[in-house]
Amino acid sequence: MLRAGVIAVALVHVSAASAAPADPGERAEALLLGGAINRFVARQLPATFSVRGDRDAGIGAQDVTLVDARYCGAGKDGGRGRLVGALRPAGATGALPTLDARDCRATLDEVGKRLAAAPDAGPVAVVELVAEWVPWELRLSIGGVAAAGADGARGLARTLARAKAAGPLATVETSGLRLATERGASLNLDLALAFLKGADGVLSTLTIACGGCAPAPRVPVVNPAGGGADVAADAASEVDVDVILGATLRFANRVVALYSEDGPLVLQLDRQAVEIRKLQIGGGEGTLTVHGRATWRAVSESAQVHIESAGTDLRLTDVRADAETEDCRALSGAASVRCTVRNAARGPAASAMTGAMTASYRGKPLRTFIAPPPFSFEVGGRRMTLRLTPTRASSTGGSLVVRGKAELE
């Protein structure tokens, strides 16, 4: 049931008393809305898997195909995620209506009758797929089953009843996930999942891997008032938002350091490149500072650069480049003079860098020239990549929060 495992992985973006808890101050959260989840699931379909037969009853194995599925939010208890899926015997032909939001509110029988009414639908089954997370494991199981349609519907229902009785369709470990850059630098993380009751979203929390630790108590990042459903509803009302990604500044700096191993941040100034290394992020309420060591290829000089941004969608407000100077105190004679001359020349170079960066980027959203990289994880033996197109970035409560469109690959 390989593809069932893939769908379980899509929902992912044991306690031990002797283990030290992870630092709750180093944490990231991603509120992934149904639109992004449904796009990923759609890419995995159709998916065919085999259901074991019943030898004693003389029933052989049967292949069934999941042809459509839709994420419907949390279950009644709020601790489980719920998907509605449509299955047919493998090889069935004839188009079926697409599952949509109304099918999340309808009964399985009602959905089955609607799909089976399509011309040449043949036997079809509508199932409830239940996703449940417990430390540190995500399980995907069959809940309810309703079959409808022409001859063969009862047999399909019996087949899926056997699949349900056999236990979870897929189980995915969510501890020790490896976040890897394109050049191989990596960081191991633990992932906790929460299915938001009353909301069309999954909240995932990433912390530094801590084998055997229980999930640490946390102050929410993307829903600081604790109202995850309200935050999800607000985000869903924005047509260009289906993910909210938040990280404490300590976690953000760890990830920045990881991706910096692949190379510097490169900014273009008047067709010349400025490379910024040793990046650090700092900030306060409504403000964010990025600083590092910048080298301007045009003048072959380095400076300590500070980029200030502010606002509800962080925009560059100020740039300062401080020249890196040599210590001339131990030198004497001509060597001391040459050192002093070199230092004197570095001040104007740093000023030129400040002027060029200010002219190029002042007033522009920070997200347009410091974009998030692709986040690639190894989950359940598969490579999964989250690509984020940011539409708004803000700083609040010691955290960086980015809203945008997500693509899961």
Task: Describe the protein's architecture and organization.
With 409 residues, the chain is of the alpha+beta class. The protein folds into 2 domains: 2-11 and 36-132 and 141-169, no CATH class; 242-409, no CATH class. Helix content is 24%, strand content 41%. The protein contains 8 helices and 19 strands.
**Which strands sit side by side, in order, in the main sheet?**
1-10-9-8-17-18-19-11
Count of helical stretches? 8
Average pLDDT: 85
- Quickly give the structural class: alpha+beta
Percent of residues in β-strands: 35-45%
* Number of strand segments: 19
Order of helices and strands: HEHEEEHHEEHEEEEHEHEEEEEHEEE
Largest sheet: 8 strands, antiparallel, barrel
Count of domains: 2
Helix content: 10-25%
Radius of gyration from the CA trace?
A: 27 Å
- Taken from the alpha-carbon principal axes, the silhouette is elongated
Residue windows where pLDDT falls under 50 for at least 5 positions = 13-22
Distance between the termini: 19 Å
Short description:
The protein is of the alpha+beta class. Helices cover 24% and strands 41% of the residues.
